[in-house]
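Researcher: Next entry in the queue.
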Amino acid sequence: MSTARPCAVAGLFYPADPVILQNWLQAALSDAHAPGVEENNAVPRALIAPHAGYVYSGQTAAKAFKRWHQAAAQIKTVVIMGPAHRVGFHGMTTIDYDAMDTPLGEIAVDTEMRNALVERFDFLRYDNRAHAPEHSLEVMLPFIKTLLPQAKVLPLLNGAISALEVASILEDLLRHKGVYVVISSDLSHFHPYAEAQKMDAQTAQWIESKQWRHLDGEHACGYKGLQGLLVMHQAEHWRVERVECVNSGDTAGSKDSVIGYGSWAIYENPEGGPCN
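Model: Structure for this entry, 276 residues:
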């Protein structure tokens, strides 16, 4: 019996053929220039990246992940946190698999850290059923496998949960050296192009000014993870840098009804906050 969580959306959200997927990733990451990527040696402790199909939001995600392109030696575990789209539940869930499958090969789960979290936090539990059809975490895996081939992952899905609960688990995780975070979220959904641009610009301003209370499901489907990240004690000292903010009307869709996509890099202030 396999001990890896199977792919659910390979061939739908991104290529299932490993050669095609690898070629797409190499091209996307090579083209994903953003100001400061080559010149700035700082490695963001957290990324915010969209989770739609690669044809729509893959380039925006690649621009965020490019910030980790020389960080394989220091990133040991990537916590991937996103919203549950298909299964409702209270609290937060993870998987009890030992790995997560991708067309490029399996990625090991940090089972020691995961098991310790489940023991410490009563709102976190194992639920493979909630994770089985979910795309918000899976679409991040090929980027991680490509850029950080030795890193482990720790998948976390948010259900009905408070920002402070999310913050408490992120604070616990980020006390560990070598642990980095990806918050998976799209922005506004199904508005006309100009309206979506206005909404997403407001959301970007809230994220960058850490006004977490304003975020909601109308502005970002992964808002619980965003809120938890921004309300943390450490966040006071963090620098939030926008990488890109676009929508499906800019990439591969009609402008009549669009979905917004944004990516950000979050850097620690070395002189502020307790993170290592």
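Model: Confidence is low (pLDDT under 50) at residues 34-39, 272-276.
Researcher: Noted, moving on.
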